[in-house]
Amino acid sequence: MRRMTAKRLFDLVVTVLFLVLAWPLVLLVALGVRVKLGAPVLFRQQRPGYRGQPFVLLKFRSMTDARDADGALLPDVERLPAFGRFLRSTSLDELPELINVLRGEMSLVGPRPLLWHYLDLYTPEQMRRHDVLPGITGWAQVSGRNAISWAERFALDLWYVDNHSLWVDLKIIGLTLLRIVQRDGINQPGHVTIQPFKGQAFLHQNRADPEAMTPRSTPATSTVPVRSTSPATAAAPQRRVLIIGAGGHGQVVANILLQARAQGSVWEPIGYLDDNQAIVGQRRLGLPILGAINQLAEITHDGIIIAVGENYRRAELFNRFSAAAEEMITVCHPTAVIAPNVPLGPGTVVGAGVVINPGSRIGANVILNTHCTIEHHNVIGDHAHIAPGACLGGDVEVGDGAMVGIGASVLPQCWIGAWSTVGGGALVHRTVAEHVTVVGVPAQPLLPTHSEPRPQRRPGALHRQPQLDEASAVVAPNHALEQPST
Questions:
Q1: Would the pTM of this model clear 0.90, i.e. be above it?
Q2: Among the options 376, 377, 383, 435, which is catalytic?
Q3: Are 253 and 349 in contact (CB under 8 A)?
């Protein structure tokens, strides 16, 4: 409740200040619409809002009412003039939605309100996008806007529902301004905006133009699913993979597997295992939750992928299943850009839009989340998690089990100690010791995190001992500095 109250106060303050300062721009756009497109100036349409309750969405009109000889409206692409395209590419057509924000029908940030008739097509999981107020912008909008698939859009919306905060909202607003300047992701090829959503069967289809997806090089590891830029290779022998974990990250992994399968991967996801008995028998992204994790041996499969976001638990499961000789597959979203000869350890997940530059090495059981950037000659240890939008400069080392939060930046040649946490949006400019949480700009320590047992390092792990000194290290209060190795 406190978080929602703070969010509402933030929405009101920012909206009122913007309208006070930018009312000449709003008036100018309204006059432009009246002159170029005629009346009415505003476009009104009923959309589902919080908890699916209807409200009237307001936007500046961007299309004409041009009709054919029989009086039927022409296709959208023929009714969108140059002025309307300009409004959409700059998002100026969204300005009237600030009225919806003032009314409490929308927030500045949240899942975009979609068409009313889509409600009948949603799964129960997809309906969770209505657990928060719809937004003018959202995590899906800054992660690809209309150029991403429906599966990606729903996964990103649900991530926001589960993780929204004032800081996340500020981050998304900043990225929105950048996307507006770049004017990318406005539409899918052949569509004014995006293909209509047609329900679960449609969810796993690729973008309208699969060949337009960013190609990626195949890393030098035998565990990476086979991919191709042509769906013709989909006839390759099918291998069955089970997803360990059916939470939010489990669905992200499922989406990656489905997208990769459509591009020719031999790995076919057959379902999830999850210890939450209340959800066994349900479906997520069309895949069934088959049972508890300890039932793995009872289900025929060829490989597994651990889809658990929490690093300690993921490491525990990885060690357990490695001892049982399970095949840990590595999955990469087709839009990831990975330099040639970058090794990816078994069980690693590479999300949509991830960039891994030359000379880097990625350990086992790592999560490289949506749109993070791994610059040249980085070393990422086993069980680490690089969150969405994080950026690691060149020659950075991330220790086993470390977490780099959403939108955080690590400057070149820094070392992040094992099982440490870098808070969302933090700027790391010097070495961070092991078992430390750092936040802020520049990053400063909170408390040491010694309460969790540290999993054993995998034989052949990638890391060397950091060289720490009092002038260059970030340490927690009363945390003893490690002596340089000799």
A1: no
A2: 376
A3: yes
Task: Tell me the Ramachandran region of residue 182: left when phi exceeds 0, alpha when psi lies from -120 to 50, beta otherwise.
Answer: alpha
DSSP at 241:
E
The dihedral region occupied by 304, where left means phi > 0, alpha psi between -120 and 50, and beta the remainder, is: beta
First-to-final CA distance of the chain: 54
Check if 479 is active-site: no
The continuous run of DSSP H or E covering 423 comes out as none
Angle in degrees, CA 248, 260, 300, rounded to 5: 75
One-character DSSP codes across 134-163? -EEE-HHHHTTGGGS-HHHHHHHHHHHHHH
Q: What is the pLDDT of residues 447-461, one digit of tens each?
A: 554 444 555 555 445
Give 395: exposed, middle or buried? Use CB within 10 Å, 0-12, 13-18, 19+: middle
**Sign of the C-alpha dihedral computed for residues 409, 90, 184 and 45 taken in this order:** positive
Residue with tokens 């009312």: 23
Q: Are strands 287-291 and 331-332 parallel, antiparallel or unpaired?
A: unpaired
186-243, pLDDT tens digit by residue?
A: 444 444 456 777 765 444 443 333 233 233 333 233 333 333 323 333 344 578 899 9
Identify the CA nearest to 399 among candidates 278, 311, 293: 311
How many CB atoms neighbour CB 394 within 10 A? 15
Contacts of 447 (CB under 8 A, 6+ apart): 437, 476, 477
**Measured CA distances, 82 to 30, 37, 77, 226, 464 (Å):** 16, 11, 11, 43, 57
Angle, CA of 171, 177 and 179, to the nearest 5°: 100
